[in-house]
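Escalated from tier 1: serine holo job.
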Amino acid sequence: MIKTTAEVRQAFLDFFATKQHQIVKSSSLVPGNDATLLFTNAGMVPFKDVFLGAETRSYTRATSAQRCVRGGKHNDLENVGYTARHHTFFEMLGNFSFGDYFKENAISYAWEFLTSVLGLPKEKLLVTIYESDEEAFLYWKDEIGIPVEKIIRIGDKSADKKFESDNFWSMGDTGPCGPCSEIFYDHGEHIWGGPPGSPEEDGDRFIEIWNIVFMQFNRQANGDMEPLPNPSIDTGMGLERISAIMQNVHSNYEIDLFQALIKDTANLLDCNDLNNKSLRVISDHIRSCCFLIVDGVVPSNEGRGYVLRRIIRRAIRHGHKLEAKDNFFHKLVKSLIEQMGDAYPELVQQQAIIEKLLRIEEEQFGRTLDRGMVLLEEILNNLEGDTICGDDVFKLYDTYGFPEI
Ligand code: SER
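Tier 2 regenerated the structure:
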């Protein structure tokens, strides 16, 4: 019986190994070969050049559990912890074909893994395809046997936005891209939401679990779609989402891994309410912070280091909300290692340095906040009227780390 997050991760890699895929270790969160990206944000990132034909490997099939961070300026950090599925850090399970198999195998493998290996009930699954993708449609219908009403076609957002669609995946403004087919899980009538493409699609009932991208083009800066040397496959399934389904829970924060981190944080901070959102925030943030440091990012005032600093400071502020009396964040490194150290030995190897960097950052932020409080008092004492001017507010936010909300 596959249930825990660790078991799901391993089952995925083992399954694709039996289908002749090379198991590839997760790459760094700092993309080695890509100046267009702040962080590795999908499982395909380390393989970008292989898709483009600029790099060859000794294998044409690969599988990985890739650590990912989505914490740049386009990710709404303030949402994390308050929704069921927003994270700064997550793991993406993926299988990849570099000019080897294409649509049929990719669809069959995904279906076999979900229904035979994980044993998900077929009637709970539905799929989307890119509107004009007859090949994928016929395969889902005739070979897999999905009823047509559960194969939903999704087109472009508008007639003048060709390829701008939930079912056309692009790495960015340029780079590998192609139509995709997504598999959704129906969490049940008791949860609000409608199927993909419906007005209620943003609800939480139908959740996308697996994206199968049929990589066919290299998008050029001028918008031209150059065919890739070989049609390829890139898939991605969020480990936390699929683990939630296997554990019969709805929110990612209820899975074993997060529950353990939440309990340890609650113990450390003497908090009795395990549903407190600040515990979720902290348990999410300890993951991204530890892994960013493992990958060589240090807190600073620009670029990747600034994102790391913002995440650490947000975690500390949520600790304050729970009335943390002491620097606490670095003490959670140990808990994370208990949960993820087996899968990521680099966490264990770098435990001391991670703890040290986080502790120093906590101490420094504490001093910055104290200075900010002095400034705030000064501002309040000299205030004429009842509004603090924008410049002062910005200074408190930008220089002294005061919260946005
Ligand atoms: N690259 C695709 C995604 O991020 C599939 O992995 O969804």
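The beta strands are 22-23, 61-69, 89-97, 125-130, 151-154, 168-170, 175-186, 206-219, 225-238.
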